[in-house]
Write a structure and sequence with these properties.
homodimer, 334 residues, alpha/beta, 434 Repressor (Amino-terminal Domain), Rossmann fold, 3 domains, 6-stranded parallel sheet, elongated, DNA-binding
DNA sequence: GCAAGTCATGGTATCGATACCATGGGCATG
DNA sequence: CATGCCCATGGTATCGATACCATGACTTGC
């Protein structure tokens, strides 16, 4: 394999100018005369030159890379968030370096450290609960950090999201207001899924003294959200037969729970309400028609990109908290 | 914001050794005595040192970064592919730099060029049809390129995937074998979605002379797969009332088509079969129970990672074509 | 008409880590 | 005991682009 790259020096020689002029022509064309700009562009085209951003990052101390960490990409709303983020960043000339923690808190510090090795200009974390190791790393690095999907009271620097707790509370209140007496919260068991924790807290808020019941299905390799939902519903009905509503932590679980309920001949929504979270694309399909909470993942990503660009422009974003809210979508299942 | 990073020189001073020894202690610990290794590690911990991979990449001419390009992350199987890829790469000490083309062919060359700016050690492209610009860039860069999700006759270097055409053909044949006479192919209209093109070709192969009918719904901002599926079904029934099967290019479309059919009181699968593609997690849920083609996206990603690591180790991967196949999942809708 | 200022351009040092070569100590071998 | 080799370590040049400062040409204003 050919391992020779054309360098800025080659371009400079071909164009008959100094290297630095080539650099300016590409980075800040306004600082170069129209004449030389043209010569440089011609040489760039002819040689097929692609600037080495790594070298540029080293000398300018600005990498034009933003590191992002998500728990998983396989939840569609996170994928949308990343899309929004990537669109916004690339419009501003920044690139995205992606890592995933797979809900393992001990991986977070490791991944942050790996990302920091690339000297990103900012970091976007899709989570707001961090280990002490992670916090130490972030403090030492001293770069802008933007947290997504939750709104901590005191973000590290800035946060974009909505209140998972309020969303869980509103959904549960809605169920109670429409006559449900014994709603149960259904989730998967994950040590560091604080978004799920907050939704569950919201559920408990709404119950306010009444009996709160929560079931957490342990995740297993090779099984999917709907599997857990189906299994969870079976366990719930076995343990608490009087249950008349299941508040699921995600749409995937809700779809599984809903189908399992129907399979057992339980009348939904007559005898049992089932609600989800996220409003995935199939949630509104008429065979499911799931009552859920709609989150605009792409908007969260876009807003995060906007903040990131501002921070990279030197703006002080500390203390910014942007609440993008959520929307309770009432459909057929509750 | 603090913009000062601890350097290798700082660590060397603190540990009382030379910089180069620190480099070796971190990169190839076996080449350093146990004694100095310990001293270096202690200094690293105390100073909170994180190696600057950018600088390392510049001097070693190996970035330990792999660029990946996908059409979209919002299709769950691509998300799984990326997960598999990322898991495999990070196990081998490589990082993933991600870009997305959003099905716009003219964006591909731009994105490839942007990725090449980071001097990746290899490139993974989730597509096999490239513009001439892209091919020129790849040739000039001369790095290993791995194509996913399709199996071109002559891959640039290596390819991992399955035959979309065979999958489309098998699904259609299955429908014909079970007595369907007038299957219609339903897809979204995207200029460069060659995977959809190949599935459609397979559909035509299976019809072999009989009348092939295909409907392409134009994509619009803010609408989702199920929307297109529902709309597509409506148009199909209006234009070709005798249709007794709809072969959808994706599960998301199939869910929409299925629900729309039911809403119209069409008996599925009695009067109409509906099939999908991808086996998304909710496809198997009993309310849908969709007949579809299952693709192991994560396996494609893992296999791609394996090849990438081999290529980075200097192995010649040219000509490798790995067919991971697919599985026709027969459920209730056809 | 001359000082002051602006603009385009180039030279050189620098960013932080690694490759390459050099060096010196310790050990085995004859 | 001398030779030779290996191992651990360090010095210096280098990767490719940019920051900073300098230079010279040319314009502007009184």
């Amino acid at each position: 394999m050919n391992r020779k790259w054309v360098t800025m020096g080659d371009v400079a020689r071909a164009a008959g100018v100094g290297k630095i002029t080539v650099s300016r022509a590409l980075r800040t064309p306004s600082k170069v005369s129209a004449d030389t700009l043209e010569k440089v562009q011609k040489a760039v085209m002819e040689l097929g030159y692609v600037r080495d951003e790594t070298a540029g990052a080293l000398s300018s101390q600005r990498s034009r890379v933003v590191g992002a960490l998500v728990s998983t990409l396989e939840q569609p709303v996170f994928a949308s968030t990343i899309r929004g983020l990537e669109e916004g960043l690339s419009a501003g000339g920044l690139q995205l370096l992606l890592g995933s923690t797979r809900y393992q808190p001990e991986k977070e510090a490791l991944m942050v450290s790996t990302l920091l090795g690339r000297r990103p200009d900012a970091l976007v974390l899709t989570s707001s609960v961090h280990t002490e190791d992670t916090r130490r790393l972030l403090r030492a690095a001293g770069l802008p950090v933007i947290e997504l999907w939750e709104l901590p009271e005191t973000p590290i620097h800035a946060a974009v999201g909505f209140s998972n707790r309020a969303a869980g509370r509103d959904m549960t209140r809605h169920l109670i207001a429409s006559g449900r007496r014994a709603p149960v919260f259904l989730r998967t068991e994950r040590a560091s899924d604080t978004r799920a924790d907050m939704r569950e807290k919201g559920y408990r808020d709404a119950l306010d003294g009444r009996q709160a019941r929560s079931l957490a299905v342990p995740p297993q390799e090779g099984r999917s959200g709907p599997d857990y939902g189906a299994e969870g519903l079976a366990q719930i009905m076995a343990r608490w037969p009087e249950t008349d509503a299941v508040v699921c932590v995600s749409d995937a679980l809700a779809v599984g729970a809903l189908c399992e309920a129907r399979r057992r001949g339980i009348d939904v929504p007559g005898a049992l309400a089932v609600t989800g979270f996220g409003d995935i694309d199939v949630a509104g399909a008429s065979a499911l028609d799931l009552t859920t909470v709609c989150i605009d993942g792409a908007a969260i990503g876009r807003e995060a990109a906007r903040l990131t660009l501002a921070a990279c422009d030197g703006e002080d974003i500390r203390g910014t908290r942007i609440d993008l809210g959520y929307q309770l979508i009432r459909r057929a299942t509750g």
